[in-house]
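queue> holo job accepted (zinc ion)
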Amino acid sequence: MTDHPEHAIRCPWCHATPGNRCTSPRGRRIPVASHDARIQAWTTRTDARDQKTGEPT
Ligand SMILES: [Zn+2]
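queue> job finished
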C-alpha cells in the first residue's frame, strides 16, 4: 500500500470514492494514483482544518 493520504477524500475530478484510487471517467486505471485536483483538495482541506482547530492530521 502506497502512501496516499489524499485518498481519504472523494476526488472532485473523477469522483473516486474515499479509500479508492483515481480512475479515468470510464473507471479504468490511470498511471497516477490521484489526480492533481484531488491532491489539491486534500491539501486545501488539511490546511483549513489545521488553521481552524490546530489539530494534527
Ligand atoms: Zn481522480
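queue> Residues 11, 13-14, 16, 22, 35, 38 surround zinc ion (CB under 6 Å).
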